[in-house]
Amino acid sequence: MSQATRIKQPLLVAETVRKDFTANDVDAFMQYVERLDDATINATLNSPEDVYLRDDDGTRKSDGYRMTYLAFQQMCSHTAAGLLSLAADLSGLSRRGSSYDSVVSMNTAVRIVNACIKLRFRAEGGLYGRQLISNTADNTVDGIVGPAYRYLAHRYLFEAARDMLEGVDTPAYFYDARITGRRVALSFQTAKAVCSTGQHEFYLGFYFSNSEAGECGVHSAITLHRHGTAQRCVGKLYSVAHSGRNFTKKLGHLLNKSVVRLPAADVLQRRLDRLQSTVLDLTTLSQRAAVAKQLSQHAVNLQLAQAIVDWTANTGGEGEAKVVRLREARTVERTLFDLFMRIIAEAEECPPKPREELERLAFQLFMGSFVIRSNADD
Q1: Residue 158 resides in a domain
Q2: Structural domain includes residue 334
Q3: Per-residue model confidence as pLDDT tens digits over 163-197
Q4: 87 and 175, same structural domain?
Q5: What contacts 24+ positions apart, CB below 8 Å, involve 127-131?
Q6: 302-350, pLDDT tens digit by residue?
Q7: Of 227, 262, 297, which closes a domain?
Q8: Model-level pTM?
Q9: Are 93 and 45 members of one domain?
């Protein structure tokens, strides 16, 4: 069954809802995305009053709708440099600590935001003329996008991808989906394993992502799924921006690009065997630091990279991810496959953007285009 997770945030913005769907939840998925689409209203911003917030509860003055974090972020970024950081800190959106109640004030944050909106509304690159995306079912403002933005409903992308993938030479079928706010990640999987370790089977598939609120463009890529899980790695992304007169035509080209070339099964098996046979020495802290640094140079923040490497050293590619600093005297020899498995496991729990980045990095590691060295002296 589908699962929903609420990502809690202070009162100024609405909680972000994350919902997961499996292959057995197609009907529930369609009902959810249809509900989102039917509840969506786009309106042009013509006056500062269209976005002013109430300083007592943070909702929009005109209708009582609460902004999502994405919409609030977009509003601030088109108003004044640094406004998001200031408002997030003053309101408690980004501040934590024992003195929380005495040093934050949503009232102060909202008054500053409203004053900046009044001053900058018609400035170049400002909010005037942009589209505000509202959700009438949840009473939220989900996004603020440009005047040329072309809205694409998740249900349209799903239906177009499904119909296309079921009709190709190597059919692929809906495997899972995750919706975080107004951003969706869709996975389709082929029917036959292409490579295996004996314990783990991997299936080729296809990945699509889309935002109905301006968070990202439309993406497509091939994937390699670890069967029976939501873990995957994602190949080269093809993207189309939500703009332009030829948006629909470009979207069609994007979908077609996804199925032009698939890696051969024997190539994937050789790459998997190579990962399993390549030793990754994580005995010393300096060796782990060297690997973490290499990961952090490929769109992974250093703290997360260090955690991934520590988890790999401690438990290998699987097992509970408890970070325990092992004594340097103990030899810790893992493999690149262990690191690969830990990356895709961690990616599964990340928000959409870092998940996509980690999964792309995992694919590069799998295919050999990203080479890891654990010798700190190299």
Answers
A1: yes
A2: yes
A3: 999 888 889 999 999 999 999 999 999 999 999 99
A4: no
A5: 127/45, 127/48, 127/51, 127/75, 127/78, 127/79, 128/45, 128/46, 129/44, 129/45, 129/46, 130/44, 130/45, 130/78, 131/42, 131/43, 131/44, 131/45
A6: 999 999 999 998 888 765 544 444 444 355 779 999 999 999 999 999 9
A7: 262
A8: 0.89
A9: yes
